């Protein structure tokens, strides 16, 4: 357990060193390397994995399983192997949550609000295009794949609109609203993880270059604002070993912890169903308020520290992907999800070309919808463009708010066909 924790915390530093040392690794990119390393370590069989039964329980009600884990072990329901696998899952879940929640304020402290306001029109247009694209692919897919899952496809369609305009919280909410069977929910949730991961890898590898070539991106920061792939600059690497850098990083982290702590206190006052939306909204709002203070905005290494945490997040997420889950796939439903994800991306590309939306805005909008706001900084780092983080998170939060409404309305509409 300790060895795995150390791997998650310090292997990103190895990746950054490798990218600095070898130009071919730098071309691949640190985010892609983190994903590759995560998938490798998670599928080598080096540590126990969750049984299908426990995985189903976690998908349906993770909080209840966490609260009753000791009871399962004490009663003999779980074997020692199950307990060990669950402990590793808890470590991964904690690291994943902590890294992204701390990374968000660190990345936003240096936000250029003028740049964000300047791109507001493109952001709103891109948001509208994304809603149209997802809705169009869900409706068309409903008729293309009608009959592949009995008479419940209308419920699945509603959940897809919710999850691909909002996120997993919307998927869970729509399960309750539409009275979706647990087996169906688990199926959709599992396939969503696989397809969304494949989609993200596509964007991080060949997709970003292709979209910038088609749309001729003009939203890339100039040299003074430019960030590297997630790596810090050569000067920053030298300073990271100095007392000055340690003090600067400590200051940034302390302010970030304060923002996350205050956001969590506020979020605890709302229902559990709105917890994720509230905490991301509060972190975003408080971080932007903090960025108005010149001392906080000019904190050294805050952005670099945030991007290092994004590497940890990427490594952990990838290590939780089970490639063996591809076995036994229900082709029709899997194809429906892929139809929606990649089809909506194609529609966004065509409409963005016509309306002249920037390539980076298009991609960050799509990621905010398909993968949810926590993955926005991952793509921003790969695109070397910090200016799109704020628009991306804003779109993602709006998507959370819209997801339940759009999903329920879509389901009720298709129910009659």
TrEMBL record:
Short name of one Pfam family: DUF819
Keyword Transmembrane helix in annotation: yes
Highest rank taxon of the organism: Bacteria
Transmembrane segments annotated in the record for this chain: 28-47, 95-117, 123-145, 184-206, 246-268, 274-293, 305-327, 333-354, 361-382, 388-411
Keywords: Membrane, Transmembrane, Transmembrane helix
PANTHER family, sorted: DUF819 DOMAIN-CONTAINING PROTEIN, PROTEIN, PUTATIVE (DUF819)-RELATED
Listed name of the protein: Putative membrane protein YjcL
């Amino acid at each position: 357990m300790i060895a795995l924790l150390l791997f998650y915390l310090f292997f990103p530093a190895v990746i950054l060193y490798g990218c600095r040392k070898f130009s071919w690794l730098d071309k691949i990119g640190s985010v892609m390397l983190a994903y590759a390393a995560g998938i490798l370590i998670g599928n080598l069989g080096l540590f126990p994995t969750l049984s299908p039964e426990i995985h189903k329980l976690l998908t349906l009600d993770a909080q209840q399983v966490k609260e009753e884990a000791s009871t399962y072990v004490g009663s003999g329901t779980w074997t020692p192997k199950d307990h060990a696998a669950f402990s590793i899952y808890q470590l991964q879940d904690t690291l994943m949550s902590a890294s992204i929640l701390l990374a968000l304020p660190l990345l936003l402290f240096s936000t250029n609000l003028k740049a964000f306001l300047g791109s507001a029109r493109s952001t709103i247009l891109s948001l509208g295009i994304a809603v149209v694209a997802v809705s169009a692919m869900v409706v068309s897919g409903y008729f293309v794949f009608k009959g592949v899952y009995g008479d419940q496809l209308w419920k699945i369609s509603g959940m897809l609109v919710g999850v691909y305009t909002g996120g997993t919280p919307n998927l869970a909410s729509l399960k309750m609203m539409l009275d979706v069977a647990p087996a169906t929910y688990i199926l959709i949730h599992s396939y969503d993880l696989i397809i969304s991961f494949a989609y993200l890898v596509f964007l991080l590898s060949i997709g970003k270059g292709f979209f910038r070539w088609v749309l001729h991106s003009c939203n890339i920061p100039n040299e003074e604002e430019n960030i590297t792939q997630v790596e810090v600059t050569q000067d920053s690497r030298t300073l990271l070993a100095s007392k000055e850098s340690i003090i600067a990083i400590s200051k940034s982290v302390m302010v970030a912890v304060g923002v996350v702590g205050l956001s969590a206190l506020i979020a605890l006052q709302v229902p559990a169903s709105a917890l994720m939306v509230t905490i991301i909204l509060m972190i975003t709002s408080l971080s932007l308020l903090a960025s108005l203070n010149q001392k906080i905005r000019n904190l050294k290494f805050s952005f670099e520290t945030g991007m290092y945490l994004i590497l940890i997040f990427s490594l952990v997420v990838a290590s939780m992907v089970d490639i063996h889950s591809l076995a036994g796939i229900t082709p029709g439903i899997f194809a429906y999800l892929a139809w929606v994800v990649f089809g909506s991306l194609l529609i966004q590309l065509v409409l963005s070309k016509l309306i002249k939306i920037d390539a980076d805005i298009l991609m960050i909008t799509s990621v905010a919808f398909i993968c949810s706001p926590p993955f926005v900084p991952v793509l921003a780092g790969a695109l070397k463009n910090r200016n799109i983080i704020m628009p991306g998170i804003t779109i993602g939060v709006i998507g959370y708010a819209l997801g339940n409404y759009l999903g329920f309305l879509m389901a009720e509409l298709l129910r009659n066909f």
